[in-house]
Structure formats: C-alpha cells, structure tokens
Design brief:
Elements lengths: L3 H13 L8 H17 L12 H10 L6 H11 L2 H9 L18 E6 L5 H13 L5 E6 L6 H14 L4 E6 L18 E5 L8 H13 L5 E7 L2 H11 L1 H6 L2 E7 L7 E2 L7 H7 L14 E9 L11 H5 L2
Parallel strand pairs: 1-2, 1-4, 2-3, 4-5
Antiparallel strand pairs: 5-8, 6-8, 7-8
Helix pairs in contact: 1-3, 2-3, 4-6, 6-7
The structure holds S-adenosylmethionine.
Length: 323
C-alpha cells in the first residue's frame, strides 16, 4: 500500500482545498468538533447517520476514509486467489498475471456496484487490488447512497483510482436508492460485483434490510457479493441470517470466503499515523481524541452466485462445476 500519511494528506487537501498544516484557530476547533461528533455517532449499538451535514462528511474523509481502503483491498486480493477467483479472472479475459494464456484482445469491462458507498473508499481499495493482480480491463463503477452530498467527494475517489489504474474508469452515482426499501430496488446498472461496506452497522430495521437485500439477490444482476462491516448487533444478526444454509441455497450463493464474529480474529484495521497536520487535529493540549480505527476489527462475507446455464448472461460452466 502507499504511504498512509501521504494518502491522508492528499485526501484532506482535496476535501478542504488547503493542506492540513494550515488548519488553525476557530477553523481547527470546528473540524475537531465534527470529528468528535462523528466518533460519538459510532459509540452506541447502532451508528447514528450524520452524513446529511457537510462538516461531518468532510471530517469522514480524513478520519475514516483512509482506513477503509485496506480491508477491501485484502478481501478482493484473497478472493481472486481462490478457485472462484480464478473463474472471475477467466471471465474477465485471462489477462491476469500468473495466467499463461495469450492476451485475448477484447476483454469485458469489470462492473462494480457499491450500496451505501458514500465517498466510496472501497472502490479505491478494489481498484488497487485489481491493478496489483494485473488486471487492466475498463471499469464501470456505480455508487448508490441516499446522501446526495457525497457526490463531490466521490470525485476524490475517482481521481485516486485514475492515478493508480491505467485504464478507463467510469463512475455513476444515484441517490435515488434506499437500501431499506425493497420497492425501490431497480438499479440502473448492476452487473458484476456487489459491495456493501460499513452499512450494516447503521441498520435499525433488520427485516427491511433483509427484504431489500433479497430483492437485490433475486435481480440476478450480480456474480459476486462482498459484505464488510464492524462488529455491531445488526451486523452479527444479518451475517447469521445470510450465512444460514437455507438462505444460501435459496439464493444459490457459494461461500468464497467468510469471517464472521464467530470465526475468531478478523482483519485488524490499519493503524498508522496520518500526516502531521492531521495529527494536530487529533492531539491538542486540552485533550486527545483517540485515532479512529485503533481497535477496530472488520468482518466480511464473500459469496459467488451460481447461475443455471439457461439463466442468462453470467453463465460460466466453470462456476457450475464449483457447486
Ligand atoms: C459509514 S458510511 C459508509 C460509506 C462507505 N461505504 C465506507 O465504507 O466508507 C454509511 C453510508 O450509508 C449511507 N446510508 C445510510 N442509510 C442508507 C440507506 N437506507 N440506503 C442507502 N444508503 C444509506 C449513508 O449515507 C452513508 O454514506
């Protein structure tokens, strides 16, 4: 991974329009207050959503975003090393490093869909992993989130992705999507991999989420599903429901990788010091705010969807063999 302090500073500068060292006086106090509020919103059993406020979204960018790139990077890298991952690489055109096949020329784009993606650090983590494994297909990414205010900040993600990935990346965003409303599940796009990162910890109504999640699965628009979250009540509950063997069989889901709270030590969040200017926000003479993520652990599920050969566009006989 890149230098963590450089990444946090780059994101800060693009978010606020100036380097973090320049943050002083009242402005510094306001940014610190937003970080404290954001941290407190994670302190109860269900995370309180505060993202309709601009100062909170901006604080999220340097105090949480950089920490959310690495976990999905690790998961995608690991998924692509599995037998299922080999099929994914084959599907994308056998152009990955480690494959002896000739360059086949025309390769299909990689389609990535992010539910509750916000500014979408997980898109950046995904793109980095695809690049490091040797892929250079075009990427179509779609972010769905109820908060329209993330739109500008998603451009920071797009810039980061373009700096690291040589090929074309197109990004679309819709705020017309509610992950709790199963009647509104008509995604404009949505083939390929479905990601839900750091959203289950915000779910109050598990039943509503499950209904809407099932309708996404029934849409047959996804070949893979990756869910990543923190250890909250809703996360544990939803993980249990999804990992139930009847649920998996009903939706023809194949478990590629999983790490639920019952499975022992999960991925530990990266814990490096951000840039010096950002450290100043966290440390003051008056008090010290704990750096986000110091003790955070992530849990995840990665599933492949098995399609019958007659069922359409993503049919892959190798996948059928994996059943
Ligand atoms: C903690 S942020 C996670 C953002 C991003 N996935 C990440 O990992 O950094 C939770 C996101 O869920 C979005 N959200 C909350 N309720 C939602 C809903 N019902 N439907 C869609 N998005 C929702 C919020 O706007 C926010 O962007």
């Amino acid at each position: 991974m890149e230098n963590f302090a450089e990444l946090t500073e780059k994101i800060f500068r693009q978010t606020y329009g100036f380097p973090s060292e320049n943050l002083t006086g009242e402005e510094l106090d306001k940014v610190r207050a937003a970080v404290i509020e954001l941290r407190n919103s994670y302190a109860s059993n269900v995370c309180k959503p505060l993202y309709q406020r601009e100062e909170i979204r901006k604080a999220y960018m340097f105090s949480y975003y950089p920490y959310y790139v690495q976990p999905v990077y690790e998961i995608i890298s690991n998924v692509l090393r599995t037998e299922w991952g080999e099929c994914m690489l084959e599907y994308w055109g056998e152009r990955a490093i480690g494959f002896d096949s000739e360059d086949l020329g025309a390769v299909c784009p990689i389609e990535l869909t992010y539910i509750a993606g916000g500014p979408c650090p997980e898109l950046y983590g995904t793109v980095k992993a695809l690049k490091d494994i040797g892929l250079d297909n075009d990427i179509y990414a779609q972010i769905y989130d109820i908060e329209e205010g993330w739109r500008d900040l998603q451009n920071i993600t797009l810039d980061l992705c373009k700096d690291c990935y040589g090929k074309n990346i197109s990004l679309t965003f819709s705020s017309e999507y509610n992950a709790l409303d199963s009647s509104k599940q008509e995604l404009e796009h949505g083939y390929g991999i479905l990601f839900i990162q750091n959203y289950l910890s915000h779910v109050v109504d598990t039943e509503k989420f499950m209904r809407s999640f099932e309708s996404l699965l029934n849409s047959n628009r996804f070949g893979e599903v990756i869910i990543l979250d923190l250890n909250y009540n809703a996360t544990r509950n939803i993980f249990e429901r999804i990992c139930d063997k009847d649920f998996l069989s009903k939706h023809r889901l194949y478990t590629i990788l999983k790490h639920t709270p019952d499975d022992g030590d999960p991925i530990q969040a990266i814990h490096e010091q951000p840039s010096r200017g950002i450290q100043k926000i966290f440390n003051s003479e008056l008090d010290i705010i704990t750096y986000p993520k110091k003790y955070t652990k992530y849990y995840y599920l990665a599933f492949g969807k098995l399609y019958k050969p007659t069922f359409g566009f993503r049919v892959d006989s190798r996948r059928e063999e994996l059943k």
